[in-house]
Amino acid sequence: MFLKRMSFSSKVDNFEEVEEGNGAISVLDLPELVLECIIERLPPDSLCSMAGVCSSLRNRCRDDHFWEKHMKNKWGRIIGPAASREWQWHVASTKDSSHSKRGRPNGLMRILSIVRPSWWIKPKVDDCSKPNSSPDDSIMSWFLALESGRFWFPAQVYNRENGHVGFMLSCYDAELSYDQRTDTFQARYPPHGRRAMAIENNVPWERLRAPPVDTSPHDLHISDCLNELRPGDHIEIQWRRNKEFPYGWWYGVVGHLESCDRNENYCRCHQSDTVALEFNHYAPGSRWRHTTVNRKEHREEGNEADGFYGGIRKVSSAEELSTWKRLWPSDVLE
Questions:
Q1: Which Pfam families match (predicted)?
Q2: pLDDT confidence band for 22 (50 / 70 / 90)
Q3: pTM, rounded to two decimals
């Protein structure tokens, strides 16, 4: 990479003399601030190309500062704390395996093995045993691992299993792998009970999100919004078919109690210990249309016939509401 003209001085004191001698100015002769501005404007593929020019540019182009915006712009919406922990686990496990002769984990690995979620049973990165494939903890390394599809990360999928009617207006945890060829994802849903792991291909970006709360799908979410819920509020509630199943998040709204005449001037539903929840994508009379939860002593409620309802989170952002409305089924469900 060379410059034919310069309107400023750099490491070369006399540009005219170099030009007369048929010399050329390397991009490394640019002032630090100018070079940084150039690198900052490069897209990811150009950053990788520039990093292959020489060791000096490689060190510069791998800097987290230049990759943070690329990571945020492309992956920020579906990468959450769980995915970040999974990446740190992978980096630590790879480093440990390369330094351990007998596979005995070091101190960091022993700690991570305690706090790492145990409900994924398959490796998160495939085919990483090739030479020079060991990742570091840089953002560039993480970005490229995501792009390649070798790194499986936890996120959530709306209307899982190609919009199966049994999962309409829900969002479930899954492992995801990116496919650059189709710009879609493969999803692996964890096994539960006697059911094997379910796999879904060609999942588009718009059906994905980062988990809004850092709660395992097998744990009850501790609700912090119950006292403020009132009719008309939009919510998501945990629900699972039985105790062996993981929770999914299901969309609904806060409704009025049967004793309320729905007159806004006289409604006192928000003062009751009982909160009525409505799932209006189900037909009137359906057993899935209504349920109630206790506002003061909320815990998992339900039975083997109707499933079990867990924690509640209030949905307030316009983006989240827009997503649920976009996913609304065209036909009323029974």
A1: F-box
A2: low
A3: 0.80
